[in-house]
């Protein structure tokens, strides 16, 4: 199998990794390039994650090295001026290059990168090692305590890092997390706030789920925090008590709100509702996934045994809700309602959604009608998108905002559908005016 990554949209600092600093209004191929002085070889085989900040991008890639061994590597491109891409890179990086976290020079020499995410100008990397507690590293800007290391420096260049975020002030049954085995299950970031879910192995051999957060908190996007007075931001991880950690399946962060998908198949939103980001959530059930733009919330839910729909609420200034709104709603916040796709939902199987700053992607497979076939073999994959498109981030060779979903992959400008036979979309991601599609072919 051969894996390729394509990107479109904002590219002023090379964050699309296509060797230019020009916005790309169509999907262009991302370039992965080893450092010129490196003698090692690495063949990408799977894109595990893409994380996009304001002007930088991270890729967590699985592949094989020169000895044929499987390994996971962290790559990056875009703006590195504040240390977002680690201590050894600076300026604009126009292609994906390996990021050296300098783990070999620390007590983390045996660790490997496992999870990534990014806030506006800050990068977070979870590194793991068998039989040892996970560690969380941060690097880049610290404007609102983003680094999670205390005492943020808001003027001048922030410390580069990577810094190891400490959880020694947090405890279970009076025992510091430093003295317990900790596994980081998931991490997500908004523009300037971060939420982390951890599983702690206690002394009695039981496990405890914990939810922590830091960064901007003025609008309640971090909910109720242990031992914290009301403040505009916090710079060290604190336990979030608003939602029970053991009930959470996943979570996504907007600019000033946070959405939690619960085991009860419901969604709870905390933080700002100024744009209607949380409207209707309390009445919604049978949910399977949730996503957030800066000012909106998107919920995938079953509408029948075989069919799912995307429900959206929040800002619609750039068509982010993907539906036609009545003209008499000019002074009223929109309610939660389905995105309007131009096809019967029963003819497609929704596989994944990806929410950027103010645009949304949806990966679907076209149903063949033969239910005896597996999902992998019964249909072709397509990506649809809508919303803000100022930088051409929907890849349709236009910068006009898109009010209703349109097909963005395979590209509608393609001369022949034959060009995409045997090529399957295996991943989608959306960032700050950027879109990413991973394609696998034989």
Helix % is under 10%
Beta-strand residue percentage: over 45%
Would you identify the CATH architecture of the domain at 101-242?
7 Propeller
Broad CATH class of the domain at 101-242: Mainly Beta
* Count of distinct strands: 29
Structural class: mainly beta
CATH superfamily of the domain at 101-242: Regulator of chromosome condensation 1/beta-lactamase-inhibitor protein II
The CATH topology of the domain at 101-242 is given as Methylamine Dehydrogenase, Chain H
Number of helices: 0
Reported for the largest beta sheet, the result is: 4 strands, antiparallel
Largest sheet strand order: 2-1-29-28
Radius of gyration: 21 Å
What is the succession of H and E elements? EEEEEEEEEEEEEEEEEEEEEEEEEEEEE
Low-pLDDT segments: 370-378
| Large-scale geometry | globular
The rounded distance between the terminal residues' Cα atoms is 5 Å
How would you state the average pLDDT, rounded? Answer: 91
Can you walk me through this structure?
The chain has strands at 2-9, 24-29, 42-52, 56-65, 70-79, 92-98, 112-118, 122-128, 135-140, 163-164, 171-172, 175-176, 181-189, 193-201, 207-216, 233-239, 248-253, 257-262, 267-271, 287-293, 296-302, 308-314, 337-338, 348-355, 359-366, 381-387, 402-409, 423-430, 434-441. With 442 residues, the protein is mainly β. A four-stranded antiparallel β-sheet has the order 2-1-29-28, with no helix packed on it. RCC repeats lie at residues 3-63, 209-264, 308-366. GO terms for molecular function: ubiquitin protein ligase activity.
